[in-house]
Amino acid sequence: MAVMDAILKDLTESQIDAVTHLDGPLLMLAGPGSGKTRVVTHRIAYMISQGIAPSQIAALTFTNKAADEMRLRVEKLVPGQSVWMGTFHRFCAQLLRRYAPMVGLAENYSIYDTSDSKQAMKRAIEVADVSTSHTSPEQIASTISRAKNRLVTPEMMLASSKRSGPTMASKVYPQYQQQLLTANAVDFDDLLLHIALLLRDNPELRAQLDARFRYILVDEYQDTNLAQYAIVRALSIDHPNLSVTGDPDQSIYGWRGADLNNILDFEKDYPSVKTVRLEQNYRSTPNILRVADQLIQHNRRRKQKELYTHNDEGDPVVLRIYHNGYEEADAIADEISNAMAVEGFRPRDFAILYRMNALSRSLEHAMRRRGLPYQIINGLEFYQRKEIKDLLAYLHLINNPRHDVALQRILNTPTRGIGAKTIQRLRGYADRHNVPMLDAARQVDQIEGLAKRSATCVTRFVELFDRLSLKATASIEDLLRYVVEETKYEAFLLKSHVDEQDSSAVANVDELITAGVEFDRYHPDDGSLELFLEQTALVADTDAFEDENDRITVMTLHAAKGLEFPRVFVIGVEDGLLPHSRSRDTDAGMEEERRLLFVGITRAKERLQLSCCKSRTFRGDSRPAVPSPFFNEMPLDEIRRVESEVQQNWFDDDPYGNSYPDSWDLPEEDSEANQDSEPNQDSGSAVHEKPDSLFDETCQLTEQDREQEIAKRKKKTRAPLASLQTAAEMLASGSAPPLTVYREGTQVRHGEYGEGTIVSVTGRGPKRTAMIRFDDGERNFRLAFANLEVIGG
DNA sequence: TGGCAAAGGCTTTTT
DNA sequence: GCCTTTGCCA
User: Fold this and answer.
1) What are phi and psi of A433, to 5 degrees?
2) pLDDT digit string, tens, across residues A762-784
3) How far is the CA of A611 from the CAs of A323, A488, A640, in angstroms?
4) Which domain does A764 fall in, by range?
5) Gene3D superfamilies attached here (predicted)?
6) Is residue A179 part of a domain?
7) A603 is catalytic
8) Which nucleotide in the DNA or RNA is closest to residue A384, CA to C1'?
9) Is residue A36 a known part of a binding site?
10) H-run or E-run covering A330
11) Across chain A, what does the average pLDDT equal?
């Protein structure tokens, strides 16, 4: 049979083993580049070819992108079949649409994004009346989020905190849930939580859905949390045809509640499981694979596996040491541009990966200056833009008039005379009566202490809203255009960006409308406002990735999971960055960081470069950087180490005025540059005894380097690095603005407040701040801005 | 009330 | 360095 041939052709024995497994639990342990997606898609095709109804199959992925990819490939094998494929969150969102009333919601419920839920959280904290002096809303939010991922309800949290006294989170959690319920909204975690609890508490519904989704496939199983575990478990009792794929070594979402035990204990949960191991790697060269393998051997919580490949040896992995982040970015951009010109690589062949989004900036500069086409996949993108959030807030409120966060956002946007005070009054009224704020706005006359004028403005807003609501069933495009027009939104944008060259805001509005047009075209029949909003809420940053675009890809290591590129650069492989300083303290944290680097390394097919810098600009000023301890866990003898030469004109060529800080700092802060890199004494007991840590000479500034740098800086007119010169020298050379020494006891005169005495000086660089005592009290000034005159001391 | 400028604070990763 | 909050003035 032809279809069958196509499905099983070119598969290895163990792959066929997995593909042809139909009934009963299946665990696929698949190393990087082992053709996992291929096996999963072929398996779906095989199932269908064996007569299993596509409607009984659900494939759950981690990102929409992975789902799209899967859909595309299944479509090729068995055209026209409709298997449900999508993310866990989308899966739950759609179930919840249907069963919303069972958890106290209406089916037009809204999905709060992170910033929405932060707003709700603040309000909950206010209502719960707890002091946040020792925590932040974010901290409480993350505690509650973790609780939800572990299926802990407000009642459970309260009960468990009975003994030690209620915690901040246990007091806020019920309030927060009340906020969401009143607003007919859920947050990301609730999507999973509601469904998990629904399945647990309603045996009939559970059985019904178990039968409906008879075959469930879960991708990236190593990244599932308890809530997700409970959901798939509940759907696989009568029909335990659950197949999961994953790689414990690629679990990188522990911070989000992912529980490695889900995959490590799968065989215990389902004793009759068939386990298939896919260990052959079809992606990378042996050189790359050995580095990855030796690194990950240092993790203890894992399942041992043998990675091997029949690919050609290829080039050695390169470890590159740069002076600073700007050089790193420039050199990589040059290298890419060279490889394209000389070796015929395409932009899409390259990926640059890093631990934090903040590291993308210098890369962006470097590539833009060379005219290299690139795509940055990062947070704070399109849907986070103010103008987009504003317009979507209108749509959200039209779809769900109880959406309080949206209401508060647009009540005075564009400005229409409704101030913070008025909004606060409305909120207070709403909280007291336990009603949505829009209802409060409709009853504005009954709110005491509100100025007549404010009340009129509110009423006018309600009228506007009612007018907009009449268009609720129009196409998304029409609705958006109508909103923009009725609110005079563009005029508002133009007015608020008068002197800026920021025309991008208006362009973004157009782009949103375009997105609406596309949605309308894609959903001629089933398109609804609700669905549009759901889609925009559940898009991830990684989904913006388009591989048909011929561009260099720039993104975080997290976002890179599941992708592959011929040439990969991992930048910023430095202690404190990778591993990140906030993960360094625990073994679990370190292991996850190690896995993260493992994921980065194994994205590369042909060539891999890891790089670190001697100094890195961070939060405004540059600090010495130390290579990642992970380098000591790699086969260094087969890695090619290249230290960039000191470029003669490097500092003069530097296009960014700030690669070295101007000298605001007082000489006493010298020491920082000198107390380099003690190669992490506290951590790494096992690998520690290598005294010849290869970085001794390379990654600390040698005396010679230092002298060269001093010489070069002296030539410049810009203020030199304070740590390398005394204030007197700077004055003598005329290279610095007259350096005023502000210290405790210095007498100063302020243009406005008169004479005073400096009590203390804190902070560094442009943020250096002095506390000055005047006759009428103490005030803080930033020395860089304050207009101070020294009169003595 | 609204607009602006300065101070404050903060950065891991994302559905 | 950048975004958010605050505090002051028209």
Assistant:
1) -95, 0
2) 443 333 455 566 565 555 554 54
3) 11, 50, 11
4) 738-792
5) 1.10.10.160, P-loop containing nucleotide triphosphate hydrolases (3.40.50.300), PCRA, domain 4 (1.10.486.10)
6) yes
7) yes
8) C3
9) yes
10) helix A325-343
11) 80
Q: Which residue has the tokens 């009590």?
A: A759
Quick check: is A312 catalytic? no
- Minimum CA–C1' distance nucleotide for A61: B15
Task: From A643, A668, A703, give the residue that closes a domain.
Answer: A643
Question: Does residue A228 share a domain with residue A160?
Answer: no
Domain end position, chosen among A627, A643, A659: A643
Q: What pLDDT digit, counting tens, does each position of A694-743 carry?
A: 333 333 333 344 444 433 333 332 222 222 223 333 333 333 333 345 55
Residue A579 preceded by cis peptide, ω within 30: yes
Q: How far is the CA of A254 from the C1' of B13 (A)?
A: 10
pLDDT digit string (tens) for A547-593?
667 889 999 999 899 899 999 999 999 999 999 988 888 888 999 99
Mean pLDDT of the region A294-323? 91
Q: Which is nearest to A719 in space by CA: A678, A778, A766, A672?
A: A766
Instruction: Give distance CA A383 / C1' B15 (Å).
Output: 14
Whether A217 and A160 share a structural domain: no
CA distance A473 to A477: 11
Task: Tell me which nucleotides of strand C come within 7 A of a protein CB.
Answer: 1-2
**Whose C1' is closest to the CA of A752: which nucleotide?**
C8
Of the ranges A428-432, A659-663, A669-673, the best mean pLDDT one: A428-432
pLDDT tens digits for range A93-105 = 999 999 999 999 9
Task: Indicate if the pLDDT at residue A86 is higher than 70.
Answer: yes
The one catalytic residue in A36, A171, A233, A402 is: A36
Tens-digit pLDDT profile for residues A188-215: 999 999 999 999 999 999 999 999 999 9
Task: State the total domains in chain A.
Answer: 5
User: Do A3 and A77 lie in a common domain?
Assistant: yes
What is the rounded CA–CA span in Å between residue A775 and residue A773?
A: 7
Residues A439 and A500 in one domain: yes
User: What percent of chain A is modeled with pLDDT above 90?
Assistant: 44
**Whole-angstrom Cα distance, residue A683 to residue A298?**
13
Stated in angstroms, how far is A563 CA from B14 C1'?
Answer: 17
Supply angle C-alpha A247, A18, A304, rounded to 5.
30
